[in-house]
Structure formats: C-alpha cells, structure tokens
Amino acid sequence: MNKRQKKLLEECKECSWGKALKMKYDSIYFIPTRKKHDSGYNIIIVIGEVNDEKYIIDYCDVIDFESYYGEENPIRDLHIDCNNNVYHIWSNRQKLIPQHLVSNAVFSMDKLDSRKW
After folding, report:
1. How many domains does the chain fold into?
2. What is the pLDDT of residues 89-117, one digit of tens each?
3. Which helix (H) or strand (E) holds 18?
4. Domain of 9?
5. From CA 95, how far away is CA 93, in angstroms rounded?
C-alpha cells in the first residue's frame, strides 16, 4: 500500500459504534498512528470494508479476536497491540504455531488451555 492509498483510508468516513457493531465486514485494516493512548501504546485506526465501502469503525490501543469453541459465550483469545509501529500479537491461553513462512506467514493456534481462565 502506498502513502496515497494509506491517506485515503485514514480519510474514510467514520461509522457510529452502534452501526459498526451491527455490520459484518469483508475485510478490516489496521493503521497504527503516532498518537499514544493512555496505556502508552499507539492508537490504531480500525477500518472495516463492506461491499467496497470503507468506514473508520474504531480508534483503539488493543484489538481482540473472540472465538466460540462450542461455548455459548465468546473467549477473547487473540490480541494485537502496537507500540512505535511494532505490532505485538499474543494469546493468554494458546500458543501461536507457524504453519507456513514463505511469502506469507500462516499461524495456527494450539488447543485452548482451559486451565488459564
């Protein structure tokens, strides 16, 4: 992505949280900023794309992914934060296992450790 494309993403219209939470996205973009959150980590702009329309849906310092594992309630088990334009991706319950590391990196996650609740 070149600087012009990044600038266009940063200038997308903002979507209200109420509307953003009801949508299902074809893809999402994360753009780190130089602004700091109260936590000390960089603020990340989150942009959602639906049918080629892009919307800014959040400004945050951590991105969490939830999984259901057959449970009724979701489990937040994958997290992303950014500090000085370095992304940190981790799980409190699982290990990240590389599956493919040529051209694109593919990781899977080991089985959920139910002892870490």
Report:
1. 1
2. 888 777 777 787 776 777 777 766 555 54
3. helix 17-20
4. 3-109
5. 7
Q: Report the first-to-last Cα separation within the chain, whole angstroms.
A: 39
- Does 23 map to a domain? yes
H or E element in which residue 3 lies = helix 3-10
CA distance 57 to 106: 26
**How distant, in Å, are the alpha carbons of 4, 19, 60, 81 from that of 39?**
30, 27, 10, 11
Taking every pair of Cα atoms in the chain, the longest distance, rounded to a whole number of angstroms, is 47
- 74 located within any domain: yes
Residue 47 to residue 93: CA distance in whole angstroms: 27
**Is 92 part of any domain?**
yes
State the pTM of this model: 0.73
Cβ(109)–Cβ(95) below 8 Å: yes
